[in-house]
Structures are given as structure tokens and as C-alpha cells.
TrEMBL record:
InterPro entries: Anthracycline_SecMetBiosynth (IPR052164), Glyas_Bleomycin-R_OHBP_Dase (IPR029068), Glyas_Fos-R_dOase_dom (IPR004360), VOC_core (IPR037523). It comes from the Bacteria. Residues 7-124, 137-255 form the VOC domain. This is VOC family protein.
């Protein structure tokens, strides 16, 4: 089925050393890395079993001087990038990069929601289908999670622009609720209150692994920092939240193969 408005279609890491990042994620997820072949803008593609699931670009000193930090971001499909960007900015969002063409690939814009969480919108120049988000496949993204200073307003905002709807919610006590995001007949992620006072609103992406304990062992052996987990979540699966070697926050999700 072709991608529709509101689908997550690409995941992108910005970091000082994409080659080192490819080595870590290759060990944890099984990704293979190759150069995209654009001398004007070096870019590394990550693939799983021959399917491209994401990429990495270099965080330059100039970008860092403007406040950019290592991190993962996602691209969301829209029908018209210029119209979507204008509507989002008119609805209280921000614009970091205006609508711009990537020759031979598509048109994109880098925006923020009204609470400041950054994300991309994109329309490809072809009608190719992205399987970057595929919850049944290891090595693909399985979950998109927004921690927001105002998740109620955030849900309304994303619903207006991407057609996302509210799913079930899990209570988090005084902190509020963990509310699932429904889209196109499935659950694609969740929104929750920002748990650290004063921390910026941000997206976190969880990539699927075949064995959560094996993933944890590789992360520790490679020197990544596990912030949380492995923790069991509904569905008899487990999650890890980590900082990779360059400081980018990332999640992993999968089953526990061995009884502990």
C-alpha cells in the first residue's frame, strides 16, 4: 500500500561521525551502511535486508554553533510540502528549514510543533513506498514517541495536520497519561508529558531488535549509555532507552529470548 499523509517515512541521524554511528547501529540492529553518492552533500544510508530505513548526515561545527546537537529525527509524509509548512507555521509551529528540494529525491521542510519538537515533512518526487516504519520487521522503526510540554495541545496539532487520532491511554499517576497515536488503522506511537521539568519537547524513536538482552549487551560492550531498561511493556516485549556514542537518544524494542 502506498504511503499516505501522516505516515512516518524516514528516520535520520545527525551526528559528528556517521561512519562510527553506522558501526554501532550495524552491531545492534544489523544495518548495512553505504554512501548515498552525492559529493555536494555527503549522506550515509542505513538498510536492513536490502530495504533502506534511514540515514545519517554529518553534524558540522557550523550546525553545532547554531544549537544543533546529535539526534534522531523523522520525516512525515504530506501531499504538498509548501502548503503543509505554511499551515503548520500558521498554526503556531516553527520553521527551521523552508521547503527545499533534494534533487532526485523529493521536497522537504524542517519544522517544529508549537511546543518546540522538531520534525520533517516530505513529499517524494516518485511514488515509491517507504517501509522505514514496519512494526513486524527487526531493524525497522517500531514506535514513535513524543515527550511534550503540552501533549493535549500537541495531539490536537498533529491531528489537524496529519490526521492522527487518539487511541487508548495508560495512566502515569500525577504525571498524566501515555496516550497512543492511531493512524490508518494502526497504532504508530504515543504522546506523553515531558518527565523532566524544563527539558525540550522531543521525539524518541524505537527500533526493533530480535533479542532485547542481546541488544543491551552490544550497547554496553560498545560503550553506549543505557538510560532505561530493559523494561517490559504491554505485548510481552521490552524496551531500552539509550544514548549512543555521540550522545543521540534512541530507543530499542523487542522480545526477551532467554528466561532471566
Amino acid at each position: 500500500m502506498a504511503n499516505i499523509v501522516g505516515d512516518f517515512i524516514w528516520y535520520e541521524l545527525t551526528c559528528p561521525d556517521p561512519v562510527a554511528a553506522a558501526d554501532l547501529y550495524g552491531a545492534v540492529l544489523g544495518w548495512r551502511q553505504r554512501d548515498a553518492g552525492n559529493p555536494a552533500m555527503p549522506y550515509h544510508l542505513f538498510s536492513m535486508d536490502g530495504v533502506d530505513v534511514g540515514g545519517a548526515m554529518t553534524l558540522t561545527p557550523e550546525m553545532a554553533a547554531c544549537g544543533a546537537r546529535p539526534g534522531w529525527m523523522a520525516y512525515v509524509a504530506v501531499a504538498d510540502v509548501d502548503a503543509a509548512a505554511a499551515a503548520i507555521v500558521g498554526d503556531g509551529g516553527g520553521q527551521i528549514v523552508p521547503p527545499t528540494d533534494i534533487p532526485g529525491v523529493g521536497r522537504f521542510a524542517l519544522l517544529t510543533d508549537p511546543q518546540g519538537a522538531p520534525f520533517y515533512v516530505m513529499r517524494g518526487f516518485s511514488d515509491g513506498v517507504s517501509d522505514a516504519f514496519a512494526q513486524s520487521r527487526a531493524g525497522h522503526c517500531h514506535w514513535n514517541e513524543l515527550s511534550s510540554s503540552d501533549p493535549v495541545a500537541g495531539f490536537d496539532f498533529y491531528g489537524r495536520h496529519f490526521g492522527w487520532t487518539k487511541g487508548d491511554a495508560m495512566p502515569m499517576g500525577p504525571a498524566g497519561e501515555y496516550r497512543f497515536i492511531n493512524h490508518a488503522g494502526g497504532t504508530i506511537g504515543a504522546m506523553m508529558p515531558q518527565m523532566v521539568t524544563g527539558a525540550p519537547s522531543a521525539w524518541l524513536f524505537y527500533f526493533g531488535v530480535a533479542d532485547i538482552d542481546a541488544a543491551a549487551a552490544v550497547l554496553k560492550a560498545r560503550g553506549a549509555t543505557i538510560l532505561h531498561g530493559p523494561q517490559e511493556v504491554p505485548g510481552n516485549i521490552f524496551i531500552i532507552v539509550a544514548l549512543d556514542l555521540q550522545g543521540a537518544a534512541v530507543g530499542f524494542v523487542g522480545p526477551r529470548k532467554a528466561a532471566l
